[in-house]
């Protein structure tokens, strides 16, 4: 069928919305009419850093309505509202033990550019393959997705809003609720108050953590963090977070999260921990140097990477929707909508931080 899809033709070029051909879903796949898609920093990485072969149809926070299902699909049917999330195999040891975000095929399935069976679903008008991104390419009017990438959500919530639950908000909230699972009365420091950091913060509030400390360099972000549940905020350009946190909690803090990927910030996020504390790394970073004895091992600290909030999307996303409906996970306060034609502006507003979570409306 004919679709419109936003494509990065080459490394670093702006997206162009193009007409393309989408194949029928195979037995294990679902055809989804995309209503809207969030923009996540990994989309910009796909545009700029060749994570996936070009040309690539980007987008990985899609939400829409099921139009058609393959013969072996049992979990959704036409008419269902769905959120699309990351792609996983469902068969490897990590998938079978409830950790699909650690699927051993995760990189191939999400960044390899093709579907499970190695073939492509999106083709240019002159017949060339276009790479799929995260198994969904949700900046498209329609998408063919493996059943594992589809999560049914209630139809009484605006479907345009829900796409970012499939990546950014799942990553932050899931890291707290699925991975760290903090004890009642413990405290957390969250470095960076973008979509991932703020969703981690809202999750920390849901479970009633004691100190929820938000650190950023923008006062307007910190004001928003306070409204969403931060008990203390620190502008790290004005105050040293290590000193402020040691003043509040002499022994250090039980948990920290870095969402910035900035090496100096990652070191701070480890330094503020109390002995045996855990720092979760969620930002894309390069080399960071630690003195293992003095900074990590000598105080039994844990420094861990967490992908997609260690979530099982089909179980976790409906829970986030439920908490949103109750007013306890107000992620709608972080979004701004854009028309499909303005997708490059939405990328710019995400990159300069002026909008926390842009959502592109695809089909209306
Ligand atoms: Zn797997
Ligand atoms: Zn993402």
User: Strand share of the residues?
Assistant: 25-35%
Tell me about the largest β-sheet: 7 strands, mixed
Number of domains: 2
How many helices does DSSP assign?
Answer: 11
- Under CATH, the homologous superfamily of the largest domain reads Medium-chain alcohol dehydrogenases, catalytic domain
Model regions low in confidence, pLDDT < 50 over at least 5 residues: none
Q: What helical percentage do the residues reach? A: 25-40%
Q: What Rg, in angstroms, do the CA atoms define? A: 20 Å
Class computed from helices, strands and strand pairing: alpha/beta
- List the bound ligands: zinc ion
Distance between the termini: 19 Å
Average residue pLDDT = 97
Order of helices and strands: EEEHEEEHHEEEEHEHEHEHEHEHEHEHE
What do we call the CATH topology of the largest domain?
Quinone Oxidoreductase, Chain A, domain 1
What is the general shape? globular
In total, the number of strands is 18
Keywords: Metal-binding, NAD, Oxidoreductase, Zinc
Domain Enoyl reductase (ER): 12-360
Cofactor: Zn(2+)
EC number: 1.1.1.90
What are the main properties of this structure?
364 residues; 7-stranded mixed β-sheet; Rossmann fold; 18 strands; 6-stranded parallel β-sheet; 2 domains
